[in-house]
Amino acid sequence: MYILGRGLSGGLRTRVAAAFGITVGSIVHTLAAAAGLALLLATSPLAFTAVKLAGGAYLIFLGTRRLFTSSSKRLRPDPQVKPARGGAGLAFGQGILKTGTICCVAWSRQSRQMEHCCSAALTVTAACCPSGASIIPGTSLSGRSGGQMRDSQDYPLGYSEREARRLAEQGAMLEDLTAEVFRRAGIGPAMQVLDLGCGVGDVSLLVSKMVGARGAVLGVDRASASLHIAQQRAASLGVSNVEFKEADLGEFSTARSFDAIVGRLVLLYLPDPAQVLRRLSRQLRPGGIVAFQEYDMPQTSQVPASELFTQTRGWLLQAFTAAGAEVEMGTKLYTTFLHAGLPAPSMMAAMPVACGPDTRGYEYMVGVLRSLLPWLERAGIATAAQVGIETRAARLRDDAVANARVAFLPRAVGAWTKVGGKAAP
Ligand SMILES: C[S@@+](CC[C@H](N)C(=O)[O-])C[C@H]1O[C@@H](n2cnc3c(N)ncnc32)[C@H](O)[C@@H]1O
After folding, report:
1. Long-range Cβ pairs for the range 82-85 (8 Å, 24+)
2. Rounded to 10 degrees, what is the CA torsion of 152, 155, 158, 164?
3. How confident is the model at residue 88 (pLDDT cuts 50, 70, 90)?
4. CA nearest to 181, candidates 375, 333, 15
5. Mutation pick for ligand 1 pocket among 269, 293, 297, 316 (CB with most ligand atoms within 8 Å)
6. Are 302 and 404 in contact (CB under 8 A)?
7. I want to staple 239 with a disulfide (CB 3.0 to 4.6 A). Which of 234, 367, 386, 407 is the partner?
8. Are 252 and 280 in contact (CB under 8 A)?
9. How far is residue 272's CA from residue 340's CA, in Å, rounded to a whole number?
10. How many domains does the chain have?
């Protein structure tokens, strides 16, 4: 429309320049979007507002100029009047600006969709990203082969960009339950805390709020790309008391002392979690806290249970087991603490419940199943065609709503103890 308009009001040069402007603008803005600008806008309220204001100002400018230009001048170019000097340059520049305006609107929409996606926490927790930490900032991983951050052979869920986003959504879903475990464990202001297997940073960011500005958190994970995202999230939230370090927990050692060692959904992946806890708990000050939250997956259930749900649950359990993960790590926290030489822990358990048409519980289950698809296929458990991943969550939810089914997601078990002191009740 713009090129047509310029064609009517200008000469051939103006028309060509306008077309070039639109083309160059499209390329520039597409490249910017591909580089993760939309993701950045989603995480930086300042950048998002700046783009909205700039876009709005430009639209007001266009509208005002239209108003004060007589309609006859606009519609009927005087054949005697040659196109103004610099008309081609102006058309070129305007072409770029116009694609910019359209892209701003598109990026804003994208940003809002991502906010919506992360704020849709499960019905039971109704936790709408209270830490504000559930959006993943501008980190474009699309250039990496197959969308993988790194080889996922030995970690069942892999490190794709989609998995990173799933982790953040899971973080929002579990935030209240995890905070309750840490609160009961005694995590509080001014503590120095070590977060094992921090992933994209949800637990570290949660604890950073609990320890406040006088405290500090060190998050450790072996996936550098996850740590990069975690760092960006902390920066975009203005959190300065968290740092992240890349290390394998099987070998990680530090000379630093801590008031607490925490972690969530990480011990299940370690070949010898008790050995890791025994080694790292030596870094605890007297009275230091060990607090973890892990799943009991077999406890996932639906009442009354559908065939589709039973199949989905079964595949999840089989895939995790085939990948070598401990599916009952929640219960095993008790013996793991004892084997690590720690005092018997206090424990609590809770589980998110999926019910009603607005629940995201089935999306959560199927999100995990999606990340496990390579394992399902590799272990000969199910084929992609059998899984039908794109429609499975909707099928599960529709069936649950139609038949008034209630699903209990994995039991999240918390365990905590104090080294050289008594565990909080
Ligand atoms: C399910 S994620 C949980 C992340 C985070 N704790 C949370 O709750 O959001 C498990 C994390 O443990 C990390 N992990 C697994 N085995 C590890 C190891 N041996 N050393 C370091 N990190 C490990 C993975 O890289 C992954 O980021």
Report:
1. 82/11, 83/10, 83/11, 83/13, 83/14
2. -140
3. low
4. 333
5. 269
6. no
7. 234
8. yes
9. 10
10. 2
* ∠ Cα 213 215 216 (to 5°): 105
Ligand 1 in reach of 167 Cβ (< 6 A)? yes
Residue 132, domain member (yes or no): no
Band of pLDDT at residue 35, cut at 50, 70 and 90: very low
pLDDT tens digits for 39-83? 444 434 444 445 555 555 655 665 556 555 544 444 344 444 344
d(CA 115, CA 238): 18
Ligand 1 atom nearest to 174, measured from its CA: 8
Tokens of 182: 């840490």
Distance from C-alpha of 366 to C-alpha of 371, rounded to nearest angstrom: 9
pLDDT confidence band for 154 (50 / 70 / 90): confident
Q: Please name the residue that has the structure tokens 């598109």.
A: 106
Q: Which amino acid is at 349?
A: A
Residue 89: give the domain boundaries.
2-119
363 within domain boundaries: yes
Of ligand 1's atoms, which has the minimum distance to the CA of residue 195?
6
